[in-house]
Amino acid sequence: MDEGIKKGIRRLAEDAEAGIARSILRWKYNKEGAPVPGDDDLNIESRRIVDRARGIISRRGMNILNEFKKVYGKSGGKEDSDK
């Protein structure tokens, strides 16, 4: 796949994530009765939240992957013969 296409798809996904976070933030501010910040501040806050969420998912995903590797490594890479 062309590198430009990959970057375009990634940008589209990042914009969608930020848009969802922005909508949730607006809802949260309205529910709490707090004034909703301006669009620029809301965009910055939503992107910050998305970045934090990605970091958490990445770290936890690696933990899960490492646990699978440990379990798979202990079995010697062989499937169960109970079948």
Architecture overview:
This protein is mainly alpha-helical and 83 residues long. 80% of the residues lie in helices and 0% in strands. The chain is built from 2 helices and no strands. It has helices at residues 3-32, 39-74. The chain starts with a helix and ends in a 9-residue tail after the last helix.
Give the SSE layout.
Elements (H helix, E strand, L loop, with lengths): L2 H30 L6 H36 L9
Question: What's this entry about, in short?
Answer:
The protein has 83 residues and is mostly helical.
Q: Helical segment tally?
A: 2
Low-confidence regions: none
Kindly name the structural category: mainly alpha
The number of distinct β-strands equals 0
- What value does the Rg take, in angstroms? 20 Å
Largest sheet: none
Overall helicity: over 70%
Descriptive labels:
mainly alpha, 2 helices, 83 residues
